[in-house]
Amino acid sequence: MTSEFPHTPPRKSATFDDYTMAEIRRAAATGIYDIRGGGAKRALPHFDDLLFLGASISRYPLEGYRERCDTNVVLGTRFAKKPIELKIPITIAGMSFGSLSAQAKEALGRGASIAGTSTTTGDGGMTPEERGESKTLVYQYLPSRYGMNPDDLRKADAIEVVVGQGAKPGGGGMLLGQKISDRVAEMRNLPKGIDQRSACRHPDWTGPDDLEIKIHELREITNWEKPIYIKVGGTRPYYDTALAVKAGADVVVMDGMQGGTAATQDVFIEHVGIPTLGCIRPAVRALQELNMHRKVQLIVSGGIRSGADAAKALALGADAVSIGTAAMVALGDNDPALEEEYQKLGTTAGAYDDWHEGLDPAGISTQDPELSKRLDPVKAGRRLANYLKVMTLEAQTVARACGKNHLHNLEPEDLVALTVEAAAMAQVPIAGTDWIPGQKL
Amino acid sequence: MNTLNLKDLGVSGVNAALQAVPEDSNELAWTVVEPMGQHAIGCGLDAPLHVEIRGHAGFFCGGMNKRAEIVVKGHAGVGVAENMMSGKVHVTGNASESAGATAHGGLLVIEGDASSRCGISMKGVDIVVGGSVGHMSAFMAQSGHMVVCGDAGEALGDSIYEAVLFVGGEVESLGADCIEKEMRPEHLKKLAELLEQAGIDADPKSFKRYGSARKLYNFDIDNVDAY
Questions:
Q1: Cβ separation of A217 and B43 shorter than 8 Å?
Q2: Is B11 an interface residue toward A (CB < 8 Å)?
């Protein structure tokens, strides 16, 4: 019988939305938390919430394609005998052989070298392919010390002591057994096919005082030649940056919560750490207060996707940015051309994040020989190089519009924010106002 | 015998001198005097040197050693012989935390006691401790052997992989997935070899063997309380 009264449609809870209830049902059925790759997927204040002002009567622009806008960056000028100079301030973040196929690592090296930038090892050590194809290679020094040895340490162009990463600050890792091939097992001194746990903190130092001694040891082993980076997950950027400087870092790498991981708990990725946008100004302030801005370089990572993102990070005070997820996408990750295969895995292109399972149809986050062969490292490396060049051109375009002849001349004054949150984090005014949250007019 | 005075040369001066010894040099025996407990002494060596450090050493003495034989005539600080690849580091006194951490090879001998996390994440090194070791020793130990002639603190061998542990005294407690195992003839033989190499007089038959139950090797929700 039709009611004579107006009928309101069924209303779903904003708190218990479809995704939340599906996750409760999944947890109830399996008894295990969700593990996935990638970074935070929730909407966060980000670089899209900032805009460049460009030139106006008080500032004149530079002619596009005619007037120079330099992009080079020198990293490791504080203590290292051999600082590294990159053509562009966009580096490739640490991703391990093990989480990625050898072909993917080779492609990253190829692409980065063509574009004139560095790539970075990951947990599991340095492969000959990676060293061979990377003109500039940063060697990560991680808590697990898988594959760590003094020969590779000396072959590296820089050393990155990893304290944490944005996807899981305070967390370790686990490479599941299905991705442990003979080669991965050999490099990590463990049997094939078993889960390989990566500790959450270093085995032989705790705290900044110990870290200072550890860095001293690494410098002694490498004749004080290599720039030493300290990578931290974005949590307390002001204090972590200051402590990294105190510990003797040449470079601080600040990784926000949008930064990816090969695998960790979804609850960790989405609920621990702070957005990249909120990391930069406190880190820069710490450097400035210590008179170390531009002397200790700051690399920012976590959700960098475009030249605009890179330019905004640099305008806020970073010396360079680093990309991981975006580099994987450039190689071919989550390509809609593979939609049919993603569907078979119960997902869809653009959402595939079960990188830990080793079934990546793109041949990137896998150790399966057949899947890995799908990735042509030469072609994939070319795609990455193209993408890096586009990012650089985009950043130059923005910088010229702001009248800057070097990307490092971008400054916070060039930016405004679209939201109160972004304005507060970036410490720039809301567009059309002079108001920066937390500061008096 | 060549002598390096660390007080005069500094750590970098001493290390640079040792690291610069040519592979085919006849001058392979070196003595470091007045080490003053400084850190990173003798790290990064890669030659068949014999280096005697006369006094106490600070953190990371002999770190990442390859092929050299380093003797510390005194105590050693945190992370002695960390990530050693080969060669030998011998401490006549006690060692602080994380002795032999992540070491891939070689032999680490500590005549006295070693503090907590001795052999943490060891990856092939052999460690012989004449005294006792502290808590969480052999945590996530991957491979190699650890001999403890005295006692072991709590949570020995927590999350251990394929390393083999021999303890002569009492074990306060075993960590997750670490169990006592049968001491078979091949283990007695290996233990006797290690004791002999370390120059420690002890009866292998008085030791017990510990290793992995291998129940945490692949994630199982029913073992979640052990992780």
A1: yes
A2: yes
